[in-house]
Amino acid sequence: MKIANKSEKDLYLFFIIAFAWSWLLWLPEVLWGIRLYLAPFGPTIAAFILTYINEGLDGVGRLFKRGIDFSFEKIWLIPIFLLMPTIIGLSLLLAILSGETAPSIHVLYQPWIIIPAFFYILFLGGPVAEEFGWRGYALDRLQKRYNALISSIILGIIWGLWHLPLFSMKGQEIYQNVPILGFILGTILLSILITWIYNNTGRSILAVILFHTMGNLSHFIFPTMATKLGGLYSIILNMIVVIIIIIIWGPRRMMRKKGYHLQSRHN
């Protein structure tokens, strides 16, 4: 009971630190348009702080290693790199086929910008700043108490709420063009997809960092949110994929390998 209470307390502390760090550092951008690039790092900072307090430098080393370990089954590189571009690209295509004017797709004229955009998004666009925390720390603890689906939904709601200050920032069109409830529904669905990737790659933080990067990069390549129906089609397609995953892999662990335990690697 004491261990469970300690884990639960650490989870609450994680969310408090993650929100406090990010929201306080986002405040100058909300009020005065001054961007502090360390603001999105709240979840990762919180994860490393609490890991150091509870497990020392050895624990910090293990957490960091999961962010660079490429030893998961390479078949998972297919959904990691192709699933989100397919969903977002198809959403844009459906919006255009529904009669909307096609937005300008800049990468058609400057394809080389995809590479620097990938690395900018990777390090400063959310994935590295968030995934050591959301998945590497919080998801592990949630899954000790709930099944994979419920854990994903809880984390997806919290993840969506964490983004709320961005809806008040200038120049954040992707947030200003989406209803808040619609956005949170999107983070819930994406959270389920990330849990599926995470659990099937042996709790690899690197895998979900790459998947998160491709999700954000897909919106850069395909300006789906510049259309009226693109966001709706994206939600529908994400929901279809999530339903298929739950039917095939199951809601408990979202894994098909019998006897494969979530804690089998990277302990």
UniProtKB/TrEMBL annotation:
<feature type="domain" description="CAAX prenyl protease 2/Lysostaphin resistance protein A-like">
    <location>
        <begin position="116"/>
        <end position="217"/>
    </location>
</feature>
<keyword id="KW-0472">Membrane</keyword>
<feature type="transmembrane region" description="Helical">
    <location>
        <begin position="146"/>
        <end position="166"/>
    </location>
</feature>
<protein>
    <submittedName>
        <fullName>CPBP family intramembrane metalloprotease</fullName>
    </submittedName>
</protein>
<dbReference type="InterPro" id="IPR003675">
    <property type="entry name" value="Rce1/LyrA-like_dom"/>
</dbReference>
<keyword id="KW-1133">Transmembrane helix</keyword>
<keyword id="KW-0378">Hydrolase</keyword>
<feature type="transmembrane region" description="Helical">
    <location>
        <begin position="75"/>
        <end position="97"/>
    </location>
</feature>
<keyword id="KW-0482">Metalloprotease</keyword>
<dbReference type="InterPro" id="IPR042150">
    <property type="entry name" value="MmRce1-like"/>
</dbReference>
<feature type="transmembrane region" description="Helical">
    <location>
        <begin position="205"/>
        <end position="226"/>
    </location>
</feature>
<feature type="transmembrane region" description="Helical">
    <location>
        <begin position="34"/>
        <end position="54"/>
    </location>
</feature>
<feature type="transmembrane region" description="Helical">
    <location>
        <begin position="178"/>
        <end position="198"/>
    </location>
</feature>
<dbReference type="Pfam" id="PF02517">
    <property type="entry name" value="Rce1-like"/>
</dbReference>
<feature type="transmembrane region" description="Helical">
    <location>
        <begin position="109"/>
        <end position="126"/>
    </location>
</feature>
<dbReference type="GO" id="GO:0008237">
    <property type="term" value="F:metallopeptidase activity"/>
</dbReference>
<keyword id="KW-0645">Protease</keyword>
<keyword id="KW-0812">Transmembrane</keyword>
<feature type="transmembrane region" description="Helical">
    <location>
        <begin position="232"/>
        <end position="250"/>
    </location>
</feature>
<feature type="transmembrane region" description="Helical">
    <location>
        <begin position="12"/>
        <end position="28"/>
    </location>
</feature>
